[in-house]
Amino acid sequence: MQKKYQPSNGTERMIFQAAHCDMCSKDRYTEDHPERGCSILCNALMYSVDDKEYPQQWCVINGKPTCTAFKARKNPTQRNRRSKKTNLNQLKLL
Fold first, then answer.
1. Burial level of 93, CB count in 10 A (0-12/13-18/19+)?
2. Winning range, highest mean pLDDT, from 42-46, 50-54, 71-75
3. Which of 49, 72, 86, 88 could cross-link 6 (Cys pair, CB 3.0–4.6 Å)?
4. What's this model's pTM, rounded to 2 decimal places?
5. CA separation (Å) from 74 to 17, 48, 64, 71, 82?
6. Are 56 and 4 a contacting pair, CB within 8 Å?
7. Nearest to 58 by CA among 28, 30, 19
């Protein structure tokens, strides 16, 4: 069994999310369609690494954090993420 990965702070989470979630075809979240968001990302944000609901997909492989469910977008420049306004509001919470 691999060691689960949980970012140690908000900055580390944002870096991980930018490298994985924001470029993954599984996360198609938009403000108009929040139900298209990735359940793996949602569970990682909602639960503690010790909870049974915490995603097994976020783990450490060869010393690097990764998501084993990652599937690159066909068009990596296409990012259906939250608006800049929402991202700024998230930063205020950190």
1. exposed
2. 50-54
3. 49
4. 0.71
5. 18, 32, 24, 9, 19
6. yes
7. 19
